[in-house]
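Pasting as-is:
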Amino acid sequence: MNRVCSVSDGDSIVVEDADKQRTKVRLSGIDAPERGGQQGYGQPFAQRSRQNLSKLVYRGTVRVEWRTYDGFGRMIGRVWLGDVHVNAAAVTICVSPCFFRASRPLLSPVTK
């Protein structure tokens, strides 16, 4: 189990394990609006998307079912907050266009 110590944007979080190791996690299967980083050219609703995900998971205890790592060194996986599938909930609460990635089904059966 991991504690969410930060929410980067509408589809990325940072979790901390019992040994205080921090890991960046990208929610698999969705693509939320980008904040724009240093350039400051974020996509519409990026801040709202981040705020909504933060309300759901910030400081919560989550379980991460990881799949792989992306080119930015982030773990990619499914995140669970109790019985809540955070990836699916992020799409539901995201007031902006959050898109399912066609390459992998978000809501495929998962054994908890």
